[in-house]
Amino acid sequence: MEERRKSVQNRCDLVKDRLTSLQNLYTFRRIGITWCPSFKSGSTVWKNYFVKKFVNSSIQRPHIDLLQRFRIKDEFKRGDSPLKKKAYFEEAPNSVRFMVVRNPYVRLVSFWRMAKNCEICRSVHVERMLLSRPVEKNLEGRISEFKREVERFKQWCVSEEHAQGTPSVDPEKFTAFSKDNPFLKPPYLTFSELVDHMEREIVKEKTKIHEGHWTPVSEWCDVCRNKFDYIIKLENEPEELLYFLQKVGLHEDRDELLSIHNNSTSKPTNQNDIQPFISQLNDHQKQFLNKVFENDLIMFGYETIT
User: Fold this and answer.
1) Residues 107, 216: contact at Cβ < 8 Å?
2) Alpha-carbon distance 137 to 135, whole Å?
3) Taking the mean position of all CA atoms in its chain, how far away is CA 37?
């Protein structure tokens, strides 16, 4: 991990501007650690742990908003001293800062799988699908029908039936709305459409993307500004997790954290899973992703896609 920290610092020395203006640190003074939740990088494990330890031990599926009172809110200005940069609001001076990283392409595929799963489907994913699919002239008359079907899809997503249903419901069932409707095949955002949506958002905003599930971890956690003491690689767990727990005095909680880790997802996405998704992308999309994730790839030792 020390070599990884040096690699991050070397890259930061070449970065002229701040990576981001986001503030995504949570500090827990009682145990002397500060954490940045990098989504789709094992953040559920730590979120559940912190909520159960500091908020309510009986909550089964806590939301990260329950940790808002632990979120650092202070900000510093360009040119402030290193001491002031460390002295965040309510952060102990000797607090140990840590984060968990993961292959950015694996994170993206994992997010796509989450967005496709009806258990967590939300209207925003349907809207992204609407923006991604071009309308052919000979099909313009179907737009109204399509929108009505999408509204039914969105209503089902937030319905009591869905809330009490099984997480494994197949989104393909919604082709029953109109089996010959070309816009609902498939009735969810494809991986290629997701990448197009990312690029569209960057062009529209003319700035960094701030969707936490796919924003580069180096930006989301602003590694150049926040100076993390430990950067754990999810691919190297549980070894690096156990090493970190030993260093920060949380070794007695190892069984609890490993239990949460093993039960946080039924099918974790790994390196071997991503190739079928990468093969769906054209050269422009691959180049776009390599550029977006460039700092993550260099800092944390991952390879570009070709």
Assistant:
1) no
2) 6
3) 8
Q: What pairs with residue 231 in β-bridges? A: 99
Nearest Cα to 29, choosing from 100, 94, 83? 94
Q: Around Cβ 24, how many Cβ atoms within 10 Å?
A: 21
The count of other CB atoms within 10 Å of the CB of residue 293 is 25
Closest to 241 measured CA to CA, from 223, 262, 257, 229:
257
Place of tokens 């402030």: 80
Instruction: Give residue 116's pLDDT.
Output: 73
Largest CA distance in the chain: 66
0.90 exceeded by the pTM?
no
Q: How far apart are CA 47 and CA 65, in angstroms?
A: 10
Instruction: Classify burial at 219, counting beta carbons within 10 Å of its beta carbon; exposed 0-12, middle 13-18, buried 19 or more.
Output: buried
Quickly state the pLDDT bin for 265 (edges 50, 70, 90).
very low
Cα Rg, the chain, nearest whole Å: 21
- Please identify which residue in the block is written with the tokens 């209503």: 155
